[in-house]
Structures are given as C-alpha cells and as structure tokens.
Fold this protein.
Amino acid sequence: MTSILTKLENLKVLQPSDLDWMTQTGAHEDVPVGGVLIQEGEASDSIYFVIEGAVGVVISQNNSEQTHEIVRCGQGEIIGEMSFVDDKKPSATVLAAEPTVVLSIPKRQLQLKMERNPDFAARFYQELAMILSSRLRSLSKLLAQNKIVPGQALRKVLLVFAVLNDNDIDWMVTRGRREDATAGTVLIQQDQPVEALYFLLKGNLAVLFSMMVDGQITEKELARRASGEIVGEMSFVEAGNASATIRCAENSLVLAIPQKLLREKLERDRGFATRFYRAISLVLIDRLREGLVQRGFGQKAYNQDQQMVSDVEYEDEIPLDVLEPTLLAGTRFKWMMNRLG
C-alpha cells in the first residue's frame, strides 16, 4: 500500500514516513458501485484517500430532492478533507462510481498525530491547501463562465487571524512591507507569478478575470474585496501563477509579505507552518462552500447547519464557538492596523 501511496501524483508534500504511518493507521476498504463514503449533511468520522477506482461527488440542488454530480475523483484524491478542517457537516455526498478501493483514516487519530508531530501537521495542511486551491480555481472558472458573481463571504482575515497567534501576526507586521497603492495599481496580474501575499488594510480591490469570448479576450470584474481581505494565497500554496488580476479600485493601503520571506519562515518555524496552512485551508474551504451555494448546490448541509442569508446580519444569532474566535481575530486585525498607522 505504501508504494501505491508514494506514486499518487496528488500527494506532493507528504514524505514516505508520513505515508507509512497513514498506511499502518488506516483501514483498507473495498467499496462497491453506489456505496456511500460520505453523506451530505451527516457527520463523517474518517478522511479517505482513493487508491483505485473513482468516486462521484453529488450535491443537492435548490432545496429539492434533485442531485447533481459535480465532479469525479480518481486515484490520489482526498475525500472528506473540508469537514476535517472546518468541522462542519459535509456539503456533498460521495459515492463509488465504480468498484473502488480507499484508505480510511479516522479523523481522531489523524488529529492526535498532528498534535504530536508538528512537522507532519505542517506538511499535511500544506498538502490540503494545495489541493483545495486547485479545486477553487476550477470552481472560480466555472462561476465566471456562467456569469455568477460570488457573494461576500466571511472576511479572510477573520478566518486567518483566528488560527494564527499573536507572535505570528507580530512577525508579519515586523517583516512585511506597508504599501500605499493608488487607484489603478495592479497588485497581481493574471497568469503571471505573484511576488507577495497581500493583506488589504484600507481601500477596495477589484478581482478581474480574462477569458476568450467570440475569439477576443474579454476582462470581467468578478468581485470587490474590502478591508480585511487577503489576496495571493492561492498562487502561494500552489507555487504557480495568478488565476485572476487584482487591481486597486481606489487608493488602498496593503501589507505585503514577500513570498520568499514567508517560505523561509514556514521552513524554520513548523508550528507557524501548521497554523498558516490550516488558516489558508479554512479560507479556501469557505470560498468553495460559498461558491457552491452561489450555484444553488449543497443546500441540505447548509440548512442543517442553519446557515444564514449572506446579505443579512444576525449578530445575536452567531454561535458562540464562531463568535469568540471571530472577535479575537477582529481585535488582532485592529492591533495590526494600529501598528502600521
């Protein structure tokens, strides 16, 4: 089994020793056609690695009994990782599309392994962040092609700062660059390398996507990003080019963390690496879930978790387990703003 895991192209960061532990800890399962691994809206105790065969990811549509298969996942894919990271109920059903072999790893044992081995934790979350970023790119292109404009998800900085600690944020403020960017400044250019990770402290950014329409390249504005947003995280975790252009829609203030500096920090400080990649994974999952809702999918899980309309504030209805870290993150962001003037 270990030799098979080693050859899986999707696993680019995990080391042979990590795969050995996964093989020894996990259970080898044969799943017949139609067999359900994960049920939408129902908690799952395991995370799965597809060794052979393929599974279909099926999502409910428009609050009805209708379902829609959005993707097929084959050898090397990880299933159940979103719920593992954000501890929410699955937003999709996963069932075997053909005779399939999976490696099932209990989430509790995986969590204990991470707590005991910071290096493994950092590598595992980095692996997840890379996979999630790739999936988000695909969904973003699909939304753009169907002219679906994303809604305003929870500000990324609140998700990130709820996971990072005070020393992490102090390092960012100390080593990052404070930049005053005038309206029209391009921070990130689509299909080009990205120099830094950007925290938007003040102002407004436009997210633009270029595509071929009737033989001509057309640029469309997909969204606006306000104070508290982070851009450049997908290109960082994938070590690839930008999937969209980010341009200042007005005079803006940003904190830029050079990629080279950030990678050096992640290599030296494995505790920071674990927190950073977990935070980025949460950001990507939030955007993936929000993107699916924009397309009318995944309603069962959202209804059961009592997700609320995105353009209405329910301050007195936010669960305490969400409110407390969110308030802490807001305090940290305000502290960063004060430090940077």
